[in-house]
Each structure stands twice: as C-alpha cells, then as structure tokens.
C-alpha cells in the first residue's frame, strides 16, 4: 500500500518484494494516503494557476514545467504524484463489487446480520478454504458452494428471522421485498457482519470489510495520472478522468446544499441516484443498463476501466505489448538470388539503424576509418565519448572526432552486409515466425527475401510487410546465430520435417528439368549451374555423333552431396496397383545413388517445403549448413531452368476441343436426367430409403452423389485433352500450384454449390429463386453449376456460386478470430513453462508439469518426424553400403 | 459391473501407492518437495480405490503415444 511519500522512498531505496496482498482500500486508508481533500470542481484560476483544494491542486503533483510539487518538492518527471480524496455526502455502490454485494446481501440475516449458516457448517467451509490457501489452490469452487448454501436458507439459523427476497436491478439497485435498499442501508448491514463470518465468504477481515465495497470516500488520482494538455490555441483540455471527477464534485456539492436546506426526500433520492451514476461511470463507463457518460462532442468518456480493458488497454496495450527501438518495417518482395539466410535491406533503412560498438585497442583503427568516412554510407551516426556525452557525427565534426577517438568510446555504426538481424512477420504463431538473417544492403525501398523462406513466415508479396530488429549485444548475436538462423529452423518442431523449401516455380522448374531425357550441352549445363557453386561438371554422356551432353537429371545430381543415397516415390506417382519401381512408366520412382539421380522426377515430394524428402534427408544427415547450400542451389537452379525452358499460362491453356465439350455436355445432360428420374421416383413414393435415412435425405444424398460423379467425369474428360505438356497440368501434378480440381472447374464444370454440406435450399418460399417453380427439386434449382469458369456462369449459377463462396469467407473470418483467442489463452497459460536440465517440464515455482518432456524427452526439431531415430533409414543406409 | 474395479477399465492407467523408500527416491530423483509434485484429490475415485492416504505419492503408469510407457507421480491432497 502506498502512503504519503511512499513511492519516493521506494525509488530511493529499492526493496525486494516478498509478497503481494490484495485487499480493499478502507475509507481510513484512503484518507491516510490522501494529501488533500478536494472540495471545489474548478481546476485553474483566471491566471491559469491550479486552485487549492481543486482537482489540479499542486499537492497532487505537477505536470507544468517550472512548477514544483507542494508535497514532495519534485519537479515534473521527478514527482510521481500523490492521491487526494473526495468526501462523498452519501455512500454509493462500487459497480465493480455490485454482484458480490448482491451475493453477500442474500447470504446474511436481515436482522442479526450473521451469515445464514450454522456455525458448524461455516467453520467447515473456513477450514476447507484455509487448506486450499495453504496449498496455493484456487478457492473459487468452495466460495461458490458457501454462497449457494447460504442463499438458499430462508430462516436465520441464529435468530429465527424470516429472510425476504432480495432483487438486484443491474447495475447498482437493490430491492428487498419491493422496498429499495439505499447504499446507506446496505452499508449499515455490512458493518454489522461479525469478523468471524467473513473468512467463510473468502474475506480476510484484516484487509477486507464488506462495507468498504460501498464508497464513502473517493480517492482522487494524482494529476500525473490524468494530465491536461494545452492545445495550440492555448486552451487547456482536461483528461476524461478529470471531467468525470468534476461531475462528481458538482453533484456532491448540490447534494450537500439540498440536504442542508432540508429538500424533500424525492429530490434527495434523485440527487443520490445522480451521484451514483457519476461514480459508476467514473469507474466503468461501459456498464450495461445505464447510458455511458459522454464528452461534449458526443464521444463516450474513457474512464478507469476503459484505461485497463481491451487490446489498447494498460495490460494488453502497455504492459504485454511494447514498442521497441532498433526496429524497421516495410513491404517485402522476392529475390531468388539471395541466400535463404539473407535479407535484403534498403540502404535508407541501413543508414538509420545502428549497432553500438565499444572501441577497443583491436578495433580502434577500423572505427577511426569509419568516422573518417563522414556521412557517406557505411559510416557512424553517433559516438559516445568517455565523459558519457553522445555526439552526432556531422559533416563538420567528423574529422575532429576521428582524431579524438580513443579506447572506451562507443561508436554507433550503420548496418552493413553480414550483420545479423531478426526478421519477423505477424501473426507470430510459431517460433519460425522470427528468424535470424544476414543483412544484404540493397537499393530500393523493400525488404527482400528468398521465396523459399515464405512458408515458415506464411508470407507472400501481395503487400505483406515485415519487421526487422537489429541485435545490440554480443550475447544476443551469438544466441541468434546458434538458435535462430534460418538454416537452424529448416526442420519444424511441429512434425520434425522441413518447413523451408521449394515453392511454386522452384518445383515446376526442377520438374521440367529432370523430367524425361532433355539434353544440354556444356554451355547450357554451365549456364544452368551458373549460380549454384558447382566447381566441376560430372562425366557427360555422348550422343550418336559423339558429342558430350548432360541430361536434366545429371545437372540436378551436381547439386547433391556426392555420397547421397535415397529412394522414394514422387508426388506424380499415380499409386499404380503394383509399383514397377525403377521402371515406373510415369518416372515417379526416384532413386538417388552416390549423389546421382538415376531415375525419377524431382517435384514437391523431393524439394517442396513441408514435403521435400531430399531436403529432409540432407538436413538431417549433412547438417543445416549443407542444407542451406542445397536449398540455395536447388532454388537458383530451378529458376534458371524454368527461365531457360520457358513456362507460361494463359486462358487458352484451358481450351478443350469441341468434341470434348460435347462429351461433357452429354454427360451433364445424362446426370440431369438421372436427377429428374430420382425426383420422379421420390414423388411416386418408389424411392428405397438408405439405411438410417429418411426418404428426403436419401433423395438429397443420391442427387448429390449423381452430380458429384458428373463433375468428376467432366474433369476426367477435360483432363484427357489437357496433356502433360499443359503448364496448368504440370503445376498441378508436380505440386507446384493448384490442383486437378481447379482445372476441372476451369475447363469442365464448376459443380454443385453447397451451404453446410447440403444443396442450396434457402431463399423464397418453396424455391431458391423466382426463376424456378415451387417445389422444383432439379439440379439447376438447387445450386448445380454446369458451366465451367472458362465458359462463364449463367446469372442464377453466378448467384448460387456467390452463396457457396460466402460460406467459405464467413468460416475463415470466424475461425481466425476463434483460433486467435485460443492461441492467446494458450500462450498466457504456458509461457512460463520451461524444460529443465533434468528433462522435466516445470513452472516458475518448480512444480513439475511433465516428468519427461513430451513423455519421451525428444525434441521433435532434432529428431526424425517425431521419433528420436529412424530405424528404416539406418537399415537402408547400412544395406546400401553393403551393395 | 460386478466384482470389477476402476482399474479394470481400459481408459484407467495403472495407479500404485509408493512406499516410503520409493517416495524418498522419487523426491531425490527430481530434487523436489512434495508440494512441487502434481496433485490428486483424496476423494478421487482412483485414490479411494487403491486406498491412498493424504500425503502419500501415487505412481501412475500410462500408455504413451510417444514413449510407449510414461510414468508420472501425484501427491494426494485433502479436499
Ligand atoms: Mg499477403
Ligand atoms: Zn510530489
Ligand atoms: Zn438472524
Ligand atoms: Zn508408379
């Protein structure tokens, strides 16, 4: 508890906090901590001087420069401010305790004021509460039980008084048997509750008396907590809290005058209610049941609760969330020529951001050189001399500073290539949302990053912005380098596989390169491998004319470690009934022997983020640094390959021959007829219900089935005419982007639109739209879209499509907000847990939460897909060696 | 269910009351006091089933997805 001048004492002599006790402020304490009583609603006199015993009294602290606090003598900034108090003419309810007051009112006798429990029962509860508190356990459930028991009692067990029903009208009105209970009556009752009964209600009588929930004295916060601001016009604008306090004092005065003048009871009650309203809204201006207090402009006032609550409130806004220095934010854009652990930083930003270097004997010459550069990048922005003075480096003083520099100075040098920084994209949902990168200073105004690191950040380049933080000390840099660099985070701790790897064109590029037997001569081979630090080409093959050539597979082999072995099925694998393995007709069986790609095509399964098998094996067997090099090489090879081979996609890539078009139309017509037949059978009561379904459900299911089948059939027909040379097909089968489903909808038929998994039925009475007959159960009337996106949708189809699309949008909107809230709660619950050196998971008191981390003690980001060892792989390696 | 116990249910893992020596060994192994162990209520049906007393430690052997078997300890509290 803070008493007069208490804060000052704390600042002068730091003390260790041993424990914190929560309780209520008693009127006595409020008066004791107050430096003055506040009696006048005025703030400043005509000369702009704070009025004594007004809301800006100089004993409450000072905010105007030049003045001194009349309590502690401190200047603005030194004086922490001091509380005052207002003596309320009549007691009022504290809204924050309104519900507890109701519970207590109902739990105590209206006559003898004792808790409505037999002494034995009461003591039983008190013992339970004590035991819980000793074990540091919550007592909420016991209290709930105490009140539940006491409130159900109708006759006092102590004096036999019959209890009357107490009604509560939120926020602050109480009635007993139809008669209003004034705050003074309630307070009088609470005063008489014996101390011995309080522990049963969870109150420690030393620190909490229930009558303190009904205010008779109001603390007035120091002016430093509600500073007024001076507008350009020279006019003063007061804080919302001050406005509210003015209201309270005014009503308080009027109340006093009226009562002294012997005004009629009705007027007194009105004024009392008004005082209650002002005190209520002073504490919480968003209470339901009463209109919020407003500013003259109509804006609701921001009072005490509003300062604390919500996202911008004191807790979430000011304490949990902080603004930091040495950070930058801008739009991101891709640069495939950067390594995955680099980040392109605009020179403008590099010039603003600094790293503080302490001058030593070893670096004094390089620091002097830096200073001698003047204002030319890369240079120094500030120096701190031995006397602690911070001096800006300017075109006029840099030469002088370069001469004066000595050991012990600090130089704030600009960001340079190779500096380690943290890079982050919100929402930071997992630890890979913040990774350490090496700076690469570049022209332009955007941060540049290799597209292979987009998946862990979940970034794209449609306007996304990211943050960058410059590390300020050696420990932070070391930690970032060891734990946070991109290559250290290739394997996700979520599932033990890679999260960084090829996306989009990386996959298409390597797919095109390694598919079939494309041949490249020496020039072409070198050109493709230009950026992939490969020093020697492997042995070429020779064509009929005896000219050397390299296949795409050979070229890809050159970026693999020379002793690398791996066998797996590619994404393009059709899942044939019996796998022909090496002789797979789709070339989907990837075999790598001694660093040579022998058969198979490279696609998402090989190098994709999340799925990339080669990526996964290289990271786990050759370490993060080799994996980084592999990803860099693979992505730049892919980009070079796709650029060289050419890859484009346009609307006419979905063209299918008129013949195919006719086939699709025919099968849709057949399906529509089938639906009509089903409907007819239903209407004639000839439909056999499916087990456990009604006839109506059966009909719906059969129709959905029929229409689902026809969409697949349309896709199948369209797919037959879009061969493996079609770029959209290449992207879909290799896993680069899109799916065959997307192609079906573009070239074949969009298919059934649904809301909550069923055909669309909502709309008008008996029909979805006025275009259809009432009771029409046909395909078109309930949202079947037979057109393709390419052909275009009819107006009714378009409308149904919008209905189906809207459901998806609403879903995502709802899901993100729900999962966001859940994430916040999880983080708050788990943030202090720690894996200790003995492998246990403990919270801050050392209480064990898990006896072995994850029950098996395995860090999934250091294991293999959740297991500590991959036995199959070891067998594979051992047997391969034997071969 | 006649004659069966809670422990027969497939969802109820093995619960055993530790002897004093075992208790000491556990507390020494994890370098903890009893209040730093997870808790179980005296009134918990399984605690009643195996006749655990307040202050005793119960050893729970569960099937684990990750480790096959996992062992946890809980101290019985009065409530
Ligand atoms: Mg975006
Ligand atoms: Zn002061
Ligand atoms: Zn009584
Ligand atoms: Zn196959």
TrEMBL record, chain B:
Gene3D superfamilies, A to Z: RPB5-like RNA polymerase subunit
Subcellular location: Cytoplasm
Primary residence: cytoplasm
PROSITE patterns linked: RNA_POL_H_23KD
Record GO biological process: transcription by RNA polymerase II; transcription elongation by RNA polymerase I; tRNA transcription by RNA polymerase III
Pfam families xrefs: RNA_pol_Rpb5_C (PF01191)
Gene Ontology MF, one: DNA binding
Enzyme type, top EC level: transferase
Enzyme Commission code(s) on record: 2.7.7.6
Record key words, sorted: Cytoplasm, DNA-directed RNA polymerase, Nucleotidyltransferase, Transcription, Transferase
Domain RNA polymerase subunit H/Rpb5 C-terminal: 6-76
Listed GO CC annotations: cytoplasm; DNA-directed RNA polymerase complex
Catalysed reactions, as listed in the record: RNA(n) + a ribonucleoside 5'-triphosphate = RNA(n+1) + diphosphate
Similarity comment: Belongs to the archaeal Rpo5/eukaryotic RPB5 RNA polymerase subunit family.
Annotated PANTHER family: DNA-DIRECTED RNA POLYMERASES I, II, AND III SUBUNIT RPABC1 (PTHR10535)
Subunit composition and interactions: Part of the RNA polymerase complex.
Function recorded in the entry: DNA-dependent RNA polymerase (RNAP) catalyzes the transcription of DNA into RNA using the four ribonucleoside triphosphates as substrates.
HAMAP family tied to this protein: RNApol_Rpo5_RPB5
Protein name (database record): DNA-directed RNA polymerase subunit Rpo5
Organism: Candidatus Syntropharchaeum butanivorans
Underlying gene: rpo5
């Amino acid at each position: 508890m803070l008493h007069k001048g208490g804060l000052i004492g704390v600042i002068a002599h730091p003390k260790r906090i041993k424990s914190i006790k929560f309780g209520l402020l008693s009127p006595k304490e409020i008066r004791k901590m107050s430096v003055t009583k506040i009696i006048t609603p005025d703030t400043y006199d005509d000369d702009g001087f704070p009025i004594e015993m007004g809301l800006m009294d100089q004993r409450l602290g000072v905010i105007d420069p030049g003045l001194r606090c009349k309590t502690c003598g401190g200047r603005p900034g030194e004086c922490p401010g001091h509380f005052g108090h207002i003596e309320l003419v009549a007691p009022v309810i504290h809204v924050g305790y309104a519900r507890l007051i109701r519970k207590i009112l109902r739990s105590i006798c209206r006559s003898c004021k004792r808790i409505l429990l037999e002494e034995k029962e009461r003591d039983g509860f008190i013992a339970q509460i004590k035991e819980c508190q000793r074990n540091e356990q919550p007592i909420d459930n016991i209290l709930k039980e105490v009140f539940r028991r006491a409130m159900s009692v109708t006759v006092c067990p102590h004096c036999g008084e019959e209890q009357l029903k107490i009604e509560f009208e939120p926020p602050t009105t109480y009635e007993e048997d139809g008669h209003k209970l004034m705050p003074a009556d309630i307070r009088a009752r609470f005063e008489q509750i014996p101390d011995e009964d309080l522990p049963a209600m969870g109150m420690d009588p030393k620190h909490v008396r229930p009558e303190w929930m009904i205010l008779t004295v109001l603390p007035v916060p120091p002016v430093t907590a509600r500073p007024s601001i001076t507008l350009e016009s020279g006019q003063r604008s007061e804080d919302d809290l001050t406005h509210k306090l003015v209201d309270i004092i005014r009503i308080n005065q009027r109340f006093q005058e009226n009562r002294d003048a012997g005004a009629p009871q009705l007027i007194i009650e009105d004024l009392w209610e008004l005082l209650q309203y002002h005190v209520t809204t002073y504490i919480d201006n968003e209470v339901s049941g009463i209109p919020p207090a407003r500013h003259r402009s109509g804006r609701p006032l921001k009072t005490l609760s509003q300062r604390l609550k919500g996202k911008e409130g004191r807790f979430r806004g000011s304490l949990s969330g902080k603004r930091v220095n040495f950070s930058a934010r801008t739009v991101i854009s891709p640069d495939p020529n950067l390594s995955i652990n680099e980040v392109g930083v605009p020179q403008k930003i590099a010039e603003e951001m600094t790293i503080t270097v302490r001058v030593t004997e070893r670096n004094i010459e390089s620091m002097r050189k830096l200073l001698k550069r003047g204002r030319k990048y890369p240079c120094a922005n500030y120096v701190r001399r031995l006397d602690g003075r911070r001096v800006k480096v300017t075109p006029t003083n840099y030469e002088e500073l370069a001469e004066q520099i000595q050991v012990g100075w600090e130089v704030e040098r600009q960001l340079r290539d190779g500096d380690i920084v943290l890079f982050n994209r919100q929402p930071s949902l997992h630890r890979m949302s913040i990774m350490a990168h090496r700076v690469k200073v570049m022209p332009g105004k955007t941060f540049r990053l290799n597209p292979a690191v987009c998946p862990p950040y979940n970034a794209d380049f449609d306007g996304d912005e990211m943050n960058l933080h410059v590390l300020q000390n050696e420990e932070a840099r070391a930690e970032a380098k060891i734990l946070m660099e991109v290559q250290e985070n290739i394997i996700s701790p979520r599932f033990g596989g890679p999260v960084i790897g090829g996306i989009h064109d990386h996959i298409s590029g390597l797919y095109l390169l390694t598919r079939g037997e494309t041949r490249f001569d020496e020039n072409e081979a070198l050109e493709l491998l230009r950026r992939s630090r490969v020093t020697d080409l492997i042995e070429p093959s020779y064509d009929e004319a005896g000219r050397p050539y390299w296949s795409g597979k050979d070229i890809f082999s050159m970026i693999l470690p020379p002793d690398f072995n791996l066998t797996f099925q590619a994404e393009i694998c059709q899942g044939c009934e019996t796998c022909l393995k090496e002789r797979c007709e789709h070339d989907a069986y990837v075999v790598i022997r001694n660093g040579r790609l022998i058969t198979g095509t490279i696609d998402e399964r090989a190098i994709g983020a999340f799925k990339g098998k080669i990526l996964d094996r290289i990271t786990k067997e050759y370490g993060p640094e080799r994996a980084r090099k592999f990803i860099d090489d693979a992505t730049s090879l892919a980009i070079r390959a796709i650029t060289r081979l050419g890859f484009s996609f346009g609307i006419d890539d979905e063209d299918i021959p008129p013949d195919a078009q006719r086939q699709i139309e025919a099968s849709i017509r057949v399906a529509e007829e089938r639906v009509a037949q089903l409907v007819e059978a239903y209407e004639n009561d000839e439909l056999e219900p499916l087990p456990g379904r009604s006839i109506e459900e059966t009909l719906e299911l059969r129709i959905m089935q029929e229409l689902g089948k026809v969409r697949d059939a349309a896709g199948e027909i369209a797919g037959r005419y879009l061969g493996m040379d079609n770029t959209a097909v290449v992207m879909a089968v290799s896993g680069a982007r899109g799916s065959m489903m997307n192609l079906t909808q573009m070239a074949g038929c969009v298919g059934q639109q649904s809301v909550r998994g069923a055909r669309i039925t909502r709309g008008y009475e008996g029909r979805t739209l006025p275009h259809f007959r009432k009771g029409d159960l046909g395909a078109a009337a309930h949202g079947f879209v037979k057109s393709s996106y390419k052909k275009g949708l009819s107006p009714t189809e378009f409308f149904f499509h919008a209905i189906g699309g809207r459901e998806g949008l609403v879903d995502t909107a709802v899901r993100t907000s729900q999962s966001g809230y859940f994430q916040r709660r999880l983080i708050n619950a788990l943030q202090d847990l720690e894996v200790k050196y003995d492998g246990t998971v403990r919270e801050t008191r050392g209480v064990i939460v898990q006896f072995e981390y994850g029950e098996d003690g395995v860090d999934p980001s250091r294991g293999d897909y959740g297991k500590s060892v991959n036995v199959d792989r070891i067998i594979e390696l051992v047997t391969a060696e034997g071969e | 269910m006649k004659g069966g116990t809670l422990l027969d249910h497939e969802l109820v893992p093995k619960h055993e009351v530790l002897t004093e020596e075992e208790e000491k060994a556990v507390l020494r192994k994890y370098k903890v006091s009893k209040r730093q162990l997870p808790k179980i209520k005296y009134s918990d049906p399984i605690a009643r089933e195996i006749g655990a007393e307040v202050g005793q430690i119960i050893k729970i052997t569960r099937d684990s997805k990750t480790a096959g078997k996992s062992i946890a300890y809980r101290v019985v509290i009065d409530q």
